[in-house]
Amino acid sequence: MDVGFFAQFVINGLMLGMMYALVAVGFTLFFGVLDVIVFSHGDVVMVGGFTGLSMYFWLERMYPHLSPGPKLLCMALVSMTVIALLGAAVARSVILRLRAAPSLNTLLATMMLGTVLRESIRLFYPDGANPKPFPALLPKWSVEYSGLTLRLDNLILFCIGALLIVSVHLLINRTRLGLAIRAVAQDEETARIMGVNFTLIVLVTFAIGSAVAAFAGLMNGLYYNEINFSMGLLLGAIGFSAAVIGGLGNIYGAILGGFIFAFLQTIGAVALPFASAYKDVFAFAVIIALMAWRPTGLIAEKTSERV
Amino acid sequence: MNQPRDFVIPGPVFCIGLAVFAAIYLALFLSSESQAAILVYMAAGGMVLLLNNMSELKPRLSEAIKGNERLCNRLAVAVVLALTAAFHADHYTLFLIGTILLYIVVVLGLNVQLGFTGVINFSCASFFGIGGYTSAMLLSKTSLPPLLALPLGGVCAAVVGSILLLPVLRTSGHYAALVTMAFALLFRIFLEVNDALGGPQGVPVRSMSLAGWDFGSDLVIGDLQMSFYVSYVLLGLVLLCLAFSFVRRIERSWIGLSLDAVRVDETASACFGVDVARWKITAFTIGNFLSGVAGALYAMMLAYISPANFTFGDSLIFLSILLLGGVGNSWGVVMATAVVVLVPEKFQVIQEYRYLIYSALVLLMIVFRPHGILPRKTRIYRPGEAA
Amino acid sequence: MIRHTTGGKNWVRRWAAACLLVALAAFPAMAKQKVAVGYIGPLTGGVSANGLGGRNSAELAVKLRNEDPSAKYEYDFVALDDECKPNIGVQVATKLAADRKIAGAVAHYCSAVALSAVEIYHRFNLPVIVWGAVHPDITYGHDFKEITRVNGTMINQNETAAKFMRSRGYKTFAIIHDTTDYGKSHKEYFNKFITENGGKVLGVFGVTADQQDFNAELTKIKSLAPDVIYFGGLTPLGVRIRSQMEKLGIPAQFEGTSGIKSDAFIEGLGKELAEGSLSFIEGMPLEKLPRGAFFSAAYDNHGYTQPPEAYGPFAFAAMSLLLDNIEKLGPTRAKLIPAIRATKDADSIVGPISFDDHGQNTVAAISKYVVQDGKWVLWEDSEYASGKRSLKKPQ
Q1: At the N or C end, where does chain B have fewer CB atoms within 10 A?
Q2: Model ipTM value
Q3: In A276-288, which positions are buried (b, 16+ CB within 10 angstroms) versus exposed (e)?
C-alpha cells in the first residue's frame, strides 16, 4: 500500500476519532460531577443532528438567500442551545432524582430515555424512519494526491472539533465556573459548604456536555451527509467505551479513548486478513482485554473509589 | 374492609382465593381480543394493586403468603397448568405462556448475579443466545438426545461466560458494566458475520423430543387435540420449578448469605474471610448457566433463531424486568415478566408506539418507584397475580 | 315500535318484514360474512418505506373489494410488522398463522424474514403469497405447498444486471454486500454472472446491515480502482455508501440491486448524488403495466400519502389473487392452498400470474432503472440510453 492510501486511512481514523472523542467528553464530564453514566448521550447526539437539520429547513424557507456560512453558524448555535437545554432538563428530571438510587438504576433509566428519544424521532419527525440527507454546507474544495483525497470540509470539521474540546478543557481548568465544576466533582458536600450552588453546577455541566454532543451530531451529519434516527445507539456505546478505556472523569482519557477506538476499527477493517466485517468484534474484544489489563481505564482515576 | 377484627380468614384459604383470582384474571386477559376489554383489564389490574397497597389487606395478605410458601408455590404451578388446559388449542397464547416461563428462568439467573451478589451483567441475552445456538448446532449436527441440549446449553453459556470472568472480577461499577456491554455488542456482531452459525439470517432449530414424544407436532390424546406448544409449556414449567427452587435454596442457605455479604460490602466481607472472587465467580456462572438452559429450550420452542433475538436491547429488557420486579425478589420477577411480555403483545393498539410507551413506562417507574413493583424486603408476595 | 302500535299484531308483523326487506336491500354488506386476511411487512425500521407502501397497496386491494357490492364476503385487513428482523418475523408469522380466523396472507419484503417464516406457514397450513422478498430459496428451498410468490427472484435480476453492465463496457467490479442472506446471495449470483460474462471482480466486502462508516472499505476499493461498485443490500446502506464514495472521490459507477429501488434512496441522497445510480428489478414499471394507471389513481384516491414503492403493485396483485380465490372457494385454508398454487395466467396489474411447480411466478421481464433528475427512470426511456447523458466512464 502506498503512502497516499495510508494517509487516507489515517485521515479517516482521525475524523472518526474526533467524533467519538466529542461524544466521550460528555460521558466523562457527567461522570465527573455526578458519578453517573448517562447512556442517552448517544441519542442526544442524534437529536442534535436532527435539530440542526430542522433549523436548516426553517432557514431555507425563511431566508432562502442566506449563504452557507451564516446558515451553518445559525444551525450550530440553535442546535447547541436547544440540546444544552435538553441536557439540563434530563439532568433535572431524571438524573438528579435518581441520586439516591443504585447506579444501575440511573444507567438503565438513561438507556430507556435514549430509547424514548430515538423512538420519538422515528415516530414524530416527518418521515423519521428513513435516513435523512444532510445538506453539504461546507466548501467542497479538495486536493487529490496519489490516492489521498484531502477535503477542506473535513479539515474544517476536525479543527472546530478540536477547538471545542480545547475550549471545554480551558473552561474547566481556567475559569471560576470550571473551578466550581471541579469542586463538585471532587467532593459534593465540601463544595456545597463552600457556597457552590450544587444543582446549578450540575445543570450547567450537563448543558455543556450536551452542547458538545449537539456539535458531534452536526459533525456527523456534515461528514456523512446523512443522519438517521438509530445512529445514536452505537455512537453512545462507542462514546461510553471510549470514555471508560480512557478512564472515566478525565477529559484527556476521553479523547485518547475516542481515537483508540477509531484506530481499532480502522485497523480491524484494513489489516484483518479475514473479512473486514469482523472489525467491530475486534474493536470490542480489544476493549474487553484492555479492561482486564487496566480495570479503571488507561488514565486511572486519581481519587480512590469511595466505599 | 369493615369486617370485624376477630373474624380471621385462615392463611391457606386466602392464598387459594388469590390463586383463583389470578387464574381467572389471567384467563380473561389472555382470551380477550378487543382492545377496549384489554384496556379495562389492565386498568382493573392496576386498581387492584393500588387498592391493595393502600388498604389494610396488604399486611395480612403478605402474612398469609409468608406462612404458606409451599402452598403458594404449588398454587402458582396449578395456575399455570389450569391456564395451559384452558388454552390447550390456542397456539399463540401458549407460546406467550412458554415465553414468560423461560424469560423468568433467565431473570432468576440474573437475579442471582445482580440481585444477590451485585455482579453487573449487561449481556444476559447473549448467554441466553449461547444456549439457543448450542441447541441449534447440537440438534442439527449430532444425534445427541435433544434433552441433553438443555444442560449443554447451560454449560456452554457458563464456559463462554468464564472468558469474561477475569475482566468482570477486576473491574467494578461502570467499568464492569462496560465489559459486559461490549461483550453483548460483540456477540451479536460475531453471530452476524459468522457463516458457520447461520449469519444474520439465523438457523432453524429442530424441535425437542423426549423418548418418542415429539414436541414438534400437535398432541392428540383420545379426541382431544392440543397445540404442540403444550409440550413446551409443560417442559418450561418443569424447568422453571427446578430453577426457582434452586435459586430459593441458594438464597436461604449460607451461600446466599455469602453472596449478600459480597454485594453489600466487598471490603468488609473480605475482612471477615468471605472469598469475594469465589462467590462472584459462582454467582456469575450460575446465572449464565440458567440463561443458557432457558435459551436452549427457547430456541427449540421458537424453531428458528437469529442474532436479532439476542441483542443488547434484549439484555436491557431482561434487566428492566428485574428492576421492575424488584431486584432480588423472585416473586416480583414473575409478575414483572408477565407484564413485560404480555402487555405489548395483547395491547396491539399501540403497535408502532410500543417501544416508546414501554421505555417511557420503565423510565417513569425507575424515577418514581425506584425499588420496583415488589421491593425485596417483602420477599414473598402474591403469587401469579399479574398486570 | 311494537309498544306504540295499538293495531292488530298482523299489521305489525307485516310492517316489520317490509322494514327488514328494505334494510337488506339497502345494506347488503351487513349480511356478509366476515373474513380476515393478513399482511406482513416491515412497517418500522430502515426499509419501512417499502413495507408501508406494500401495506397500503394490499390494503387498497381489500378496500376495493369491500366497496364492491358483488363481493361475497366482507374482509378484515390485519397488518403486522416484521421489522425486517427474522426473529420478529417468526413471532408475527406464528401469530398470524395460528389465528384460525385468518384465511390467507400476503407477506414479506425482507428475504431474511421470509426464509425463516416459510416453515411456520407450512406448520400451520396458512396459504401465503410473497410480495417482495427476492431470495430464490423462499420458493425453491423447500416443497411447502403453502408458499407462492408473485415477484421474481434475484437470479434473473443479476443475470440481466451482469449482461447489461458488460454491454456498457464495464470490466472491473468491486462488490459490497450486507451480510444478510439477501446481500450474500446477491453477491454470489452477481459474482457468478459477471465472471461468466467476462467481467472481473477485484474485491468483495461484507458489511453489517447497520454500519455507518464505510470509509475504510471504500478507501481499499479506491486503491483497487474498479469501474463499478456493485452494492447488494437495502436502501439505508445504499445511501451511505453512495455518499461516502463521493466524499472519497471515487469515480466508479454505482450499481445497486432491487433493494435500493425506492424513492427513499433518492430522497436520502439528494438529486445530484443519486443521479446515474443503477438498479435492476423484476416486473414492469407501473406506467407500462396494462392497469397501472388504474392502480395509481385508486391509490391516490384512497388518500395514501406514502408512495407504493417498487413492490406495492406486487402486494396489490398478491392480495387481489388471494381475495379472488376466497371469493371463489370460501375462506377455507385447505381449499385455498391448492387453488392458489394452481394459478395459471391469472389477470393482475403486474401482468398475468402463473406459478411453476414451486409456486414461483414466472416473471420474465427484468426492468433496468437509472436515476435521472431525482426519479427512477426506466433505462430505455432515459436520456442515458439515448446518449444525451452518460454514466461514469469505464476507467
Answers
A1: N
A2: 0.82
A3: bbbbbbbbbbbbb
Residues of chain C with C-beta less than 8 angstroms from the C-beta of B302: 87, 90
Contacts across the A-C interface (CB distance below 8 Å): 95
Distance CA C42, CA C108 (A): 8
Rounded to 5 degrees, φ, ψ at C5 are -90, 125
pLDDT band at B213; cut points 50, 70, 90: low
Residues of A in contact with C232 (CB under 8 A): none
C199 and C297 co-located in one domain: no
Chain B residue at shortest CA distance from A244: B175
How many distinct structural domains can be found in chain B? 1
**Is residue B60 a part of any domain in this protein?**
no
pLDDT tens digits along B252-291:
888 888 888 888 888 888 888 888 889 999 999 999 999 9
CB C341 within 8 A of CB C145: yes
**Residue C33 predicted with pLDDT over 80:** yes
Chains B and C: how many Cβ contacts under 8 Å?
Answer: 69
In a domain, A89, yes or no: yes
The C-alpha cell 489521498 sits at A148
Chain B contact set for C98 (CB, 8 A): 90-92, 95
CATH code for position A41: 1.10.3470
- Cα(A157)–Cα(C333) distance, integer angstroms: 61
Any chain B CB within 8 A of the CB of A3?
no
Tell me what the pLDDT averaged over chain C comes to: 85
Looking at the complex, report in whole angstroms how far the Cα of residue A60 sits from the nearest Cα belonging to chain B: 31
Residue range(s) defining the domain that contains residue C274: 155-282+368-381
How far apart CA C63 and CA A106 sit, in angstroms, is: 48
Q: How many domains does chain C have?
A: 2
Chain A (78-117) residues lying within 8 Å, Cβ to Cβ, of chain C: none
Out of A97, A116, A244, the one facing B178 most closely (by C-beta) is A244
Q: Is residue A157 part of a domain?
A: yes
Q: Are C377 and C371 in contact (CB under 8 A)?
A: yes
In a domain, C25, yes or no: no
In a domain, C75, yes or no: yes
Residue found under cell 310492517: C15
Q: Which residues of B239-248 are buried (b: 16+ CB within 10 A; e: fewer)?
A: bbbebbeebb
Q: Identify whether C11 is part of a domain.
A: no
| DSSP per-residue letters across C126-179 | --EEE-S---THHHHT---TTEEESS--HHHHHHHHHHHHHHTT--EEEEEEES
Q: How confident is the model at residue A162 (pLDDT cuts 50, 70, 90)?
A: very high
Q: How far apart are CA A218 and CA A229, in angstroms?
A: 13
B386 lies in some domain: no
> What residue in A sits closest to C47 (Cα-Cα)?
A130
- Name every chain B residue with its beta carbon within 8 A of the beta carbon of C95: 92
Measured between CA atoms, the residue of chain B closest to residue C114 is B201
The answer for residues whose C-beta is within 8 angstroms of residue C302's C-beta and 6 or more apart is: C56, C60, C63
Cβ contacts of B360 on chain A, cutoff 8 Å: 112, 116
Are C50 and C125 part of one and the same domain? Answer: yes
Partners of B312 on chain A (C-beta within 8 Å) are 237
Terminal-residue alpha carbon distance, chain A = 52
Q: What is the mean pLDDT of chain A?
A: 86
Q: Is A112 in CB contact (< 8 Å) with chain B?
A: yes
Burial letters B71-86, b for 16+ CB under 10 A, else e: bbbebbbebbebbbee
- Residue B150 neighbours by CB under 8 Å, 6+ apart: B135, B239, B293, B296, B297
Closest Cα to residue B215, out of B244, B239, B201, B236? B236
- Nearest-neighbour CA in chain A from B193: distance (Å): 6
A130 with C249: Cβ contact below 8 A: no
- A19 and A223 in contact (C-beta within 8 Å)? yes
Task: Give just the sign of the alpha carbon dihedral A68, A74, A80, A83.
Answer: negative
